[in-house]
Design a protein that fits this description.
Layout lengths: L11 H12 L5 H8 L3 H11 L2 H11 L7 H8 L15
Length: 93
């Protein structure tokens, strides 16, 4: 019996959306957790599984320490009055 992952219950479209949100610099891990219930560690594991090794390394290097990927750091850096978007500019709705 294969081991269940936290994203096993997600459809392929939802997994693709998580990957797109994680790839996007302005979407925080907190937004992904709120929408899909995946912790930052689970998102990292999902990205490792879904991406080519070199692409994953580039993404990981880029997101490590980036304040916009971590809501707490972003709020502290920008002030508590900044409203965050959970959607990309090109996304409808």
């Amino acid at each position: 019996m294969p081991k269940q992952t936290p994203w096993s219950s997600l459809s392929q479209a939802e997994i693709d959306r998580v990957v797109m949100m994680a790839w996007e610099d302005r979407t925080s891990f907190d937004a992904i957790e709120q929408q899909f219930g995946l912790t930052p560690g689970e998102v990292i594991k999902l990205m490792r599984q879904e991406m080519k090794p070199n692409s994953f390394r580039l993404w990981r290097r880029r997101t490590q320490g980036r304040s916009t990927k971590h809501e707490g750091r972003f709020s502290k850096a920008m002030g508590a009055t900044v409203t965050r978007r959970f959607r990309a500019k090109w996304q409808r709705g």
